[in-house]
Structure formats: structure tokens, C-alpha cells
Amino acid sequence: MIEKNTNGEVWVFAEQQDGELHDVSLELCGRARKLADRLGVSVGAVLPGKKVTPGAQRLVAQGVDNVYLVEDDRLEYFRTDPYAKVLVDLITQHKPQIVLYGATNIGRDLAPRVASATRSGMTADCTDLEISDVTDARTKETHKNLLLQIRPAFGGNIIATIVNYDQWPQMATVREGVMPMLEPDPNRKGNVHREHPVLDDTLFVVEVIKRHVEKRHLNLKGARIIVAGGAGVGSKENFDLIYELAGTVGGAVGASRAAVDSGYIGHEHQIGQTGTTVRPALYIAVGISGAIQHRAGMEESAKIIAINTDKDAPIFSVAHYGIVGDLKAVLPMMVKAFKERA
């Protein structure tokens, strides 16, 4: 277990592939900056890889004060054991009080191993992070400036706030897209520390023989317009109307968890706490009741249009414009109107 250090930095594991930093790492830099300012400490980022020096300045521009750079040709591709050794050694040496990872395939593999090795507490798939004093209901002891690790629990039906007051550093993985990315400041100054943890050959027993990278075909995060369907769409066939409207307005197709669970559309389209978080210029919600789990993933959209047969549906509470009606009647009229306007 690492010694509790209330003056320790707030760290981000800077995930990269072929030297390109993952969006979620850059998003976390902004939240780390906010947390560190609240605590009165610096922000650090650990950047392992091969020839990744250019990424250090990008991290500084995103709000990082100290970049801990580990360059080694053998770290070109992610392998669990050597990457975990890098993190464990640096955490042991520098004693940060918070370490954040993206809830990616790599982050979900790496974070629990590092937490286990350092005997730290860790919360997975967080959707929000804050700093607050916490009073133990049992002992009445107040713990100052703890990390509130907020995430959906019980299948997304409740929101849990988890704290860790004794097993430090406090660790969390955070889902992609839930933290807004700060505008980079290219003039910002920071420090780059070249670190040299000992990585012996026994850590590289897994050999990468071939790598296949498949491009993502759906980019909900980057879409300016999203047309999303819920359980109220009624069937997989009715989702054709969603696709038609999305195609007409040049948007992407999203869905609520209920629609995905019903088999109307694939999981990659899911929006909400257990899916993707989006902030498009226009979000059209069709047949979506508006449960809190879904609203948390889209309520920051610039403009929201809700279409539902139930005038009391919760989705109308966050919508800028609401249409009470049957999607089979409303969507064809919208498609026609958009085509005539074009």
C-alpha cells in the first residue's frame, strides 16, 4: 500500500496508439486540472510508448503540469505486464493521490492490475468525479478532500458515489465522452520528466506477432446531428424511419438502452450512462421516455427535439421542442419538410 499523500498530484494515464493520444486521456486532463485546482496540487500524466515525446506538449497544452515520459521501443504496443510495471514504479516513487484512466479496453485491463499491485482502491466506469469532504456515518470521522467516484450501479438503475479514504492512491477509470475536453493552450508551459523504470525481459513474454486495427464505423461523439430511437419505436422495422430521417438531415443514428435490449439496434448505437455520452448540435429523441440514465448521456446537446406519444414523458423536461404524436406520422412529415427545404 502506498503512503497516503494529501499533497500528491492528480495523475492521468495518457493512453496512446502509434503516438496518437486517445481522446479520453485528453478529456481526463481537463477534469484532472479541475480536481487538482480544488486540492491545490499539480496535474501529472504518465506517457509510456515508443517515440511519444511529441505527445508530451499536447498533454501540457491540455492542462498537465508534469509529464512523466517513458520511452522504450519495447513499449510500442500495449502489453499488460510492462505497462503495469511502469505505472507501479512511478506511483511508488512519486506518490500521487489520484490516478485516472480511460475506461477503454486498455484502461480496463491496466487499472485493476496497478490497483492490486499498489493495494489501492479503484472504481470502474465512472461518469463523474468531484472533490468533497466526507463524514463516515459509522465513526462520525470527517475525511477532507476525498475523490467522489460517481458511476451507475445495479444495471444503471441507480447512481452510486464511492469514496476511498484509506487505500491510496484513489483510482478510477472514466468512460469516454463524459468529460468535456478543454480547449488546448499551445502557449502553456509544463515540465517533461524522462523516467527510466527497470523493465527486464521477463515482462515481455507475450510477443505481438500481428496487429489488426479496425476503424470505427460509427462516431456518435463526433456527430453534429443525432436521431435516436427508444423502446417506443416498437420494432426493428420501425427503426427504418429513424435511419431515413438521419440520412435526410445528415445525422447519425443513436438509441436508448431499452431499444438496444429489445434487439432493435446494435449496442454500438447506445447513448446514455451505459453507452456513449454525446453533445451534438441537434438531438432528435424518438420514442424515448427519458429515464435519467439516458438523459445523462445527451442532455448537454445544444438543441433537443423530443417526439413521443406520452405528453408526460420525462424526455420533455430536457427538450427544447416537443412533439406529441406517433412517430409513424411525424417522421415522414419531418423527412418531407427537410427534403423540400433542401
Number of strands: 17
Number of helices: 8
Give me the secondary-structure category: alpha/beta
Under the CATH scheme, the architecture of the largest domain is 3-Layer(aba) Sandwich
What's the structural domain tally?
Answer: 2
- Alpha-carbon distance between the two ends: 63 Å
Instruction: Identify the strand order in the major beta sheet.
Output: 7-11-6-1-4-5-12
Helix/strand order, N-terminal first: EEEHEHEHEHEEEEEEEHEHEHEEH
**So what's the CATH class of the largest domain?**
Alpha Beta
The major pleated sheet works out as: 7 strands, parallel
Write a concise keyword list for the protein shown above.
342 residues; alpha/beta; Rossmann fold; 2 domains; seven-stranded parallel beta sheet; five-stranded parallel beta sheet; 8 helices; 17 strands; globular
Structure description:
With 342 residues, this protein is of the alpha/beta class. The protein has two domains: 195 residues, 3-Layer(aba) Sandwich (Rossmann fold), CATH 3.40.50.620; 117 residues, TPP-binding domain (Rossmann fold, 3-Layer(aba) Sandwich). Helix content is 26%, strand content 26%. A seven-stranded parallel beta sheet has the order 7-11-6-1-4-5-12, sandwiched between helices. A hairpin with a 6-residue loop joins strand 8 and strand 9. Helix 3 crosses helix 4. The longest helix has 17 residues. It is globular and about 65 Å long.
